[in-house]
Design a protein that fits this description.
The chain is mostly beta strands. The protein has no helices and 20 strands.
Length: 243
C-alpha cells in the first residue's frame, strides 16, 4: 500500500478479494470508481478480518460510488472485497480500486461563514495533516446563500461538493466550557452560532436575551453540504425570562 487495482467482475455473482496488512491505529481509505469511468457496476465494498468478519462496508445507497475509511484496532492481515449490489457481471462491469492512507475530506468547520468576507475554515476527514495550518483553506464570500469550499483535487479526495451557509447575521464560534447554564456562551441575536459536539455527553449552551411576546426561530443544521433532509426548525415565544 498504497495501491491502485484495475479489474472487472467478468461474470454474474463474482466477487474479487484483495489481501493486505494493516497496523493498529492505521486508517485506510478504500476508494472504488466504476460508474464515473463508464462502468455498469453497482459496486459494494467490504473490509473483513482473517475470520471473514465484516469490519466495514459501503455501497452507493446515497448515489455516490463506494468509498470508506476504517481505523484498524490491531495489526494483522485483512481483505477487501468488490462485488455488485445486484450480483450482475460482465466485461462492462469494470472498476478501479485505490487503497492507502489517503487524505479524505468529509466536512469543514465552521459550517457557516459571514457574507462579503474571507474566512479560514478547517477541513475535517481522514489522514489529513496533523498541523492545524495544513488543514485550513480560505473561503471568499459575497452575498447570503451558499459557497463551495475550494479543495485541491491533487491533495484531497472527497465524495461530495462541500458547501457552507453564507449568512449576513453576526457569527460566533463556541468556546468551551459551555456545558451548563452558568457557563452558557453569551450571544446577541440574530446570530449564526457554530459549534461541535466534541465528545459523548457534550452539550453546547448559548445564552441570549428576549422580551415577552418576541418570537424566535431557532434553526439547527448539521451535516451541511450533504444530500437530503431539511434542517430541524423550532419556534418559541419568550416569557420575558433570559434563556
Amino acid at each position: 500500500l498504497p495501491v491502485l487495482v484495475s479489474s472487472a467482475l467478468s461474470k454474474a455473482g463474482e466477487t474479487d478479494a484483495y489481501k493486505f496488512t494493516a497496523r493498529a491505529g492505521q486508517t485506510l481509505v478504500f476508494d472504488l470508481a466504476g460508474k464515473s469511468a463508464g462502468s455498469k457496476i453497482d459496486g459494494v465494498l467490504k473490509v473483513l478480518d482473517e475470520s471473514g468478519r465484516v469490519l466495514a462496508t459501503s455501497n452507493n445507497a446515497s448515489g455516490d460510488e463506494p468509498m470508506l475509511a476504517h481505523r484498524f484496532a490491531r495489526d494483522g492481515t485483512f481483505s477487501v472485497t468488490v462485488s455488485d449490489h445486484q450480483m450482475t457481471g460482465g466485461p462492462e462491469h469494470h472498476y478501479r480500486l485505490v487503497i492507502g492512507e489517503l487524505p479524505w475530506v468529509t466536512g469543514a468547520f465552521p459550517p457557516s461563514v459571514p457574507a462579503n468576507a474571507e474566512t479560514e475554515v478547517e477541513l475535517i476527514g481522514h489522514n489529513l495533516p496533523s498541523e492545524p495550518a495544513g488543514r485550513r483553506v480560505r473561503v471568499k464570500t459575497e452575498g447570503p446563500g451558499e459557497v463551495t469550499v475550494p479543495l485541491d483535487a491533487e491533495k484531497y479526495r472527497s465524495r461530495r461538493t462541500l458547501k457552507l451557509v453564507v449568512s449576513a447575521d453576526a457569527h460566533a464560534v463556541e468556546a468551551e466550557p459551555n456545558d451548563t447554564f452558568e457557563q452558557a456562551q453569551a450571544a446577541s441575536v440574530p446570530v449564526s452560532f457554530n459549534g461541535r459536539i466534541g465528545k459523548p455527553g457534550d452539550a453546547d449552551l448559548v445564552r441570549f436575551e428576549a422580551k415577552a411576546g418576541q418570537v424566535f426561530i431557532i434553526e439547527t443544521q448539521a451535516g451541511v453540504g450533504r444530500r437530503g433532509g431539511d434542517a430541524p426548525r423550532r419556534s418559541c415565544i419568550a416569557n420575558g425570562e433570559e434563556r
